[in-house]
Specification:
By secondary structure, this protein is of the alpha/beta class. Helix content is 48%, strand content 10%. Helix 5 (154-163) runs parallel beside helix 7. The longest helix has 26 residues, at 469-494.
Length: 495
């Protein structure tokens, strides 16, 4: 057995866990923070006897088989070994590599828990290997490390998604997810948990749709990955959401890029159409993978981000902000992970870019006047109303994104960004909690309004007179919190 690369951590009790992450949803907690068991690494020639002894000594269910710490060959579990001995007649002196699960799925140790949930669910896996940025093995993660892994009736919905074999049946499954989401919201499920619950199932829906459509196309033999942007990228999808997606691919020769793009765009258009049929409306701004301008090679995506950072045109940045919320959805995730690692250290090298982003963010003022009264933005068409997406939640989203870019934070979720950035900025924990609770309140009012129905332009609009006195007071406080975030943005990046 090789020495473990990660010392054991004392396991967290549920109370300790909730206290540690009182301001964060499980969906975006870095995976490295969730694993508490000791890591065991076994050489391929280790015997069943020695492997069983070590697993029993440490009291864990699985270990990694590897020659070097940066090359996991497989996963071996106590269940597999006992089964091999009792059913297959394996000898205790047999080498362990004969009974491992080879080519294990791996994820970056800093990626969010949400991503592990999806990987474990889709692959029906018992474990995934967590790796460091340099490729070294960090630890093993299993479903028991993920609180709330299956909740809210997700099992039946997941099964219906997996069994769907055409777009029409996928549309029915998507409506079932939304209906169950309405029920969970009505029963009091927290907004952050609900958004992440829905985002997880929406991910599975989208992935299954992509699979179904991919079977109809002769796709070019290159690595590619479907990317999520905007609210989907941030795990903040609500009940009125449209598509924000793109494609990244890696050509063998850059000269092949136009030809590859032409083939992938036709496929992506078909996926966009199928997703629209499933209730994920076409993006009005055409931020979709079927748009050739958003079906780019790795090099082109890097050049696109570099252009935004080097020449931060205000109008371009207004349309570009949601691209900085990207995460992988389906395909070769490594392409997106590598793009993320490339991007993380870049923004701090371009202070003019961060300045321009802050200036643009400050143009979206929370709907609270100097005298503490609401300021309306609905005009004559929607009198006495406030757009809670633009004037309520967006100030939080923008501020969290800018601090994420400045501090090189992996996360895309607004609440988790506020939590991590707050610690790096030495912001008082009480201030971070207040921001999170204010954002949560605005999101809850938005969802309630969306469920009441209406046209696309009005489902995020609220007339404060339709709220209770307590809710109006809480909304004013939420706007004050947003103003406080913007004041810090101004002091840090503009003044």
């Amino acid at each position: 057995m090789m020495p473990a690369t990660q010392p054991p951590r004392p396991p967290k009790t549920l109370v300790e866990f909730r206290a540690s992450y009182s301001t964060a949803g499980i969906g975006e907690i870095p995976l490295r923070e969730l694993v508490s068991q000791e890591l065991l690494i076994f050489k391929p020639e280790s015997t069943l006897r020695s492997t069983l002894f070590e697993l029993n000594r440490v009291g864990i269910q699985a270990g990694v088989v590897a020659i070097e710490r940066d090359t996991p060959l497989g996963i071996v579990t106590l269940h597999d070994l006992v089964d091999a001995i009792t059913r297959s007649g394996a000898d205790l002196d047999d080498p362990v590599f004969l009974f491992m699960t080879a080519a294990p799925v791996s994820l970056p140790a800093d990626s969010p828990a949400h991503r592990a949930k999806i990987a474990l669910t889709r692959g029906r896996l018992s474990h995934v290997v967590l790796v460091e940025p340099d490729g070294h093995i960090f630890n093993l993660l299993s479903p028991v490390d993920l609180p709330g892994f299956r909740e809210g009736g997700a099992d039946a919905l997941i099964q219906s998604i997996e069994l769907s074999n055409n777009v029409d049946s996928m549309a029915k499954a998507a409506e079932a997810v939304r209906q169950r989401g309405r029920e969970l919201f009505a029963s009091g499920m927290g907004v952050e948990a609900l958004c992440q619950w829905m985002s997880g199932l929406n991910d599975l829906l989208s992935m299954r749709v992509i699979e179904l459509i991919a079977d109809e196309f002769d796709l070019p033999p290159v690595s590619w990955c479907w990317m999520a942007f905007g609210s989907e990228g941030r795990l903040e999808q609500t009940f009125a959401t449209d598509q924000d997606n793109g494609l990244i691919f890696q050509p063998e020769n850059e000269s092949d890029t136009p030809k590859i793009r032409a083939a992938l765009v036709e496929f992506a258009k078909a996926v966009n159409k199928a997703l629209d049929h499933c209730g994920f409306a076409f993006c009005r701004g055409d931020i979709m993978a079927g748009n050739p301008n958003l079906c780019l090679s790795v090099r082109e995506w890097q050049e696109r981000f570099q252009r935004w950072m080097k020449t931060p045109d205000p109008k371009a940045l207004l349309n570009a902000t949601i691209f900085f919320d990207f995460r992988p959805l389906y395909g070769q995730n490594e392409l997106v992970d590598d793009l993320h690692h490339w991007l993380l250290p870049q923004p701090v090298k371009h202070p003019r870019f961060l300045h321009a982003m802050a200036v643009e963010a400050l143009t979206c003022v929370p709907s609270l006047g100097w005298l503490g009264t609401f300021s309306y933005d609905g005009g004559s068409r929607y009198p006495h109303t406030i757009d809670l997406k633009k004037r309520g939640s967006r100030p939080y989203v923008d501020a969290a994104r800018i601090w994420t870019l400045k501090h090189g934070i992996w996360s895309t979720n607004t609440v988790e960004r506020l939590r991590i950035a707050g610690a790096k900025m030495q912001r008082a924990t009480t201030d971070t909690i207040a921001s999170v609770e204010a954002f949560d309140f605005i999101q809850r009012i938005r969802i309630k309004r969306q469920l009441a129905g209406g046209a696309y332009d009005e489902v995020n609009r609220v007339n404060p007179k339709h709220l209770s006195a307590t809710q109006r007071q809480m909304m004013k406080e939420a706007f004050r919190q947003a103003k406080s975030l913007q004041l810090r943005l101004r002091q840090e990046f503009v003044d």
